[in-house]
Amino acid sequence: MSDAVIVVALLLTAASATAAVAQRDPARQALVLSVLGSVLAVLFTVLQAPDVGLSQLAVGAALTPLLIMLSVRKVRRRGRTHDAAAKDGAR
Amino acid sequence: MAVNGWILAATVCLGGGGAAALWGVTTGPPARRVVAQNMTTSALCPALLLLSQGYGRPAYVDLALLLALLGPVGTLVFARLLGDDLEGGRPSAWGLTWTAAGLSAVVVAAVCAATGPGRAMVKLLVVGALLIAGNVIASRALSGGFRGVRGG
Amino acid sequence: MHHLLPLLVAVPLLGAALLVAVGHRLPRIAAEITGFVVSGATAALALVLLLNSSPPMVEWVGGWLPVGGESVGIVVVGDGPALGMAALVSLLTLAALAYSWRYFEEPPRGHRGAFTALMLAFQGAMCGFAIAGDLFNAFVFFELMSVTAYALTGYRIDDAKAVQGALTFGVVNSLGAYAMLLGIGLLYARTGELSMAKIGRGLDAAAGHGGPDALVLASFVLVLTGLLVKAAAVPFHFWLPDAHAVAPTPVCMLLSGVMVELGVYGVWRVYGTVFAGPGGIPAADLTRALVTLGTLTAATAAVMCWYQRHIKRLLAYSTVAHTGLFLVGIGVLTPEGDDGVALYIIGHAGVKAALFACAGVLLDRYGSVDEHTLHGRARELRTTAVLFAVGALGLAGLPPFGVALGKAVTEEAVGGPLTAVYVAASAITAGAVLRVTARVFLGLGPRPQDADSDLETSGAGEEPETAGLLSRIPDTMTTVPALLLAAAFAVGVGPGFGDLVARSVNEAGSGGAHASVHWTLPGVLLGLASTALAVALGGLAVTRPHWTTAPDWARPLRRLQSGHVGDYVAWLLMGATVLGALALPGVLGG
Amino acid sequence: MMHVLPYLVAAYIFLTGCYGLATSRNLIHAIGCLAVCQSSTYVLLLAVGYQDGATAPVFSDLRPGSRPVVDPVVQALTLTDIVVGATVTALLLALVLQIAKRHGTVDPDELRELRG
Amino acid sequence: MNRLRLVLLAVGGTGLAALLVAACLGLPGFGGRSHPYGARAVHASLTRHTANTIASVNFDQRAYDTLGEMSILFAAVLGCVVLLRQARDEHRAQPQPAEVARPVRRYALIVLPVALVTGLYVVAHGQLSPGGGFQGGVVAATALHLLYLGADYRALERVRPLAVFETSDALAVSTYLVLGAAGVLAGTSFLANTLLPYGTFNTLSSGGTVPLLNAAVGMEVASAVVVLLANFLDQAVEIEEEHGS
Question: Family per UniProt (chain C) (predicted)?
Fold first, then answer.
């Protein structure tokens, strides 16, 4: 029985990893990465590593997505102000 | 380990919920993806509670506690910082939200019943409360919680 | 005495932490003096420990001494090579800190000690890697070294090239480190141990009489991929020119002078302790892998070096070429080869750091490191010109520089046609440096024509690293390269120094055999030959530029260096496969 | 199958991450792929330390010796590894932000300054 | 050029995949019983009265690795501070107040203390139950950012004196190093856990220096994450480039 839950967790991890690579837009990738982080935490639990699971939850579910989303926001905001400046210049 | 109903339930919860959440988070419009991301918490947190019970390790409840705390925080991050993408197609998945909340409540009640009264039960109830409140609030935030956010 | 070994890591890190804690309250000069003192204290500690390293010291951190041969702690090794690398790292850090004395124009607001603190953390990380005797611990310090190096490389955030080079550096090196960690995981699965010596014994025990299998091969390939990325062997080398060309000059001195060499040292240490036994990779396979990759590295980088006009990039390629020579030297697995490479690394560190320091002078004086636009402009910098020329001759292996002694010993050890690789690679790279000297400092020859502008990085229009362009070169910026060159000279002429190095290297590894190191007639002649060849090449390039312009067959080679991080990652995978293929026969045969 | 599946999953994740990294058109995405690569090391290490029917070596709610326990060393290694991963991600993202400012793009195909 | 990359990727990836699969087949089966180092570590942990073996490995047996780990975090945060500093051609814009729906705001303000307490709990029980300085530190630091999510950036800035966090980050690293060096001064080894009594098994003060090192790491991680996020938030919210640059 414990094998079944390990297999399910492993397959979910592999699928999330594939999805995280396949999502080419960073914001959407961040969503998948946060799911990957939570799934990894569950995998670590079934592999009897609760300490590592806690760590992965803390990093994967909140910290990394927050960092990536802040980067995405900065890059986008930069693009917007530059477009606006370019328009001002054209006018 | 003999057939263990708790682990079986956790497997179903993890497999079904996880696969559905993963499918939801990789397809469809941005708004739906965030909803699916929120549902990940609601699917995985009960699974963690069931696993803790199945392995006979009350110490594992800490994981569920942390996920119940941080999962909604993660969703709020997306709701806040994806503001522009969510414009227009404001998701309102209240049916799904309340189903997930119901599932969480059932799991917490079952695990509580198996644990018996005591400090462990208080912790479980806190996890349940955080999970359901977080889930509902995150849904609320997605359906327009950060309407006025621009520069901040 | 052995209890002091971990302090080589702790002292610089403590210095870094204290600088950050109180840095914003200190005047700049106090922060710099603190950095200098801490770095110097570490250097002194390393030297004291080095003098006491015979017989080699071993320390179990946390006092977890082995019980019945088994320990749960981390072992730290204090033998000659480890402490020698730590001492070299510390002395070079000291030199780099002295060179950057009041150097950067404005330290980040509220973080006055940040640059010095990062340099100290870098020093601590490199010392930690050098003395690591535990494979996972080596990985941890490998990562610490990388992380500080990324931050230092991208330090000048106003410079578009700097941040790009730092990111390429970061992605490729991190991937290499993860490959290394996968390899460590495989080794742990097989042997259940983490200490290098215990893993080696575990592999031998697991193999029995059967020899290595696919798992040993895979772990060997993965661990070496990580180390060779750091050592910048072809085809893992692409990140290095991009990073070294853009890092601040004091950082370049450390990156080229010791960090890359630590990768070579890591290969030597890991092979010698983990994979050298009957359960590891057979010697013939290691020799095939390292000699092939090393020769390829030396050849590719020498050609690329010749066609650079960006002076720092040129120096970076010369580092890659010399790393190839180091790899060949340790690849032949003879005591003489190890001794030669040890001396070669010491001499090269001094010479290369001095050359980078001189390039930094050009950058801060003229805001350019482009050979073409600087043509004849640096005639006024007489001292720097002399230093640059002496450095070039030292790089070529002019006796009695330390480089020449190390190279001569290594050449004798590798023997045969590989000697030609040594002579040619050092002559070409030194010839390129001499060409730069002649054009930039003496204004000889016609002004070179710009060509292939889509294929090269020019190096013109760079931001100086100081507050505005320098009108006068500070004394520290000439004294430091002079001292470094003097040290490189002393390595070659110091009576008994070569033998001292050889003895401590052979005591630590090389199967207990002891080789003696001294100047020989063929060695001196080969050194003179490569110097003469370098002078001839340099002269030819200046007087007959059209004879030495890029031929068509070099174009695809140059195009490979595309600056695209995706290409580099693909090459990394390819390199791992090639490494596996080169080491495969022994596994199949066993 | 079960006795190699976790290792194969780790290898698969590493290679998938490498593929994404090599073909990425957005540097932020590339950093995400690097994080995926790294998660393969977590899976490998923990799979190596697992033991059938054993539980975590945490004795706050368990009498020592009453049940077999899994290998604690790999767990400590993985913890270190996770910290390393998070910090490297942060540092590289900081560099990407500066690239976005200085080059005006985060597409590696458009970064054409360092070559030759 | 692009084709070359795909070819390299295909060949290199296939080669590496073959190698890795061959290696996986040679590994001892998943779930095997032979873990010599692990068994020794469990034994050592029990002799030192540390209930959580992972904490014992992290802060006692292999505390030197943890020193490297926290230095990586320290160096990376310092690196981010340096890399994300305000460049010459940038200025700071005042962040605008945000309009947050009331239930969300209320949730954030209620969960904030809960999360802080949870973080501290996870740190404090590190040597007993799953958790420890790193996990708890991240939770505590993330909790603080609920203020940003529930209110706005200005509210967060008011409760976040950045210089204090930077200093405490560095001081926590120094504490760890000084605790380690105390072993050398006492004539034993660096990071030796022989200076304090090991206490009663499964209590908060058990394990000798383990709780102290654990607390130092917790403080370091919490401060470091706050500083890290502050730098990213500044970039995302406040720092703007001069137009036309």
Answer: Belongs to the CPA3 antiporters (TC 2.A.63) subunit D family.
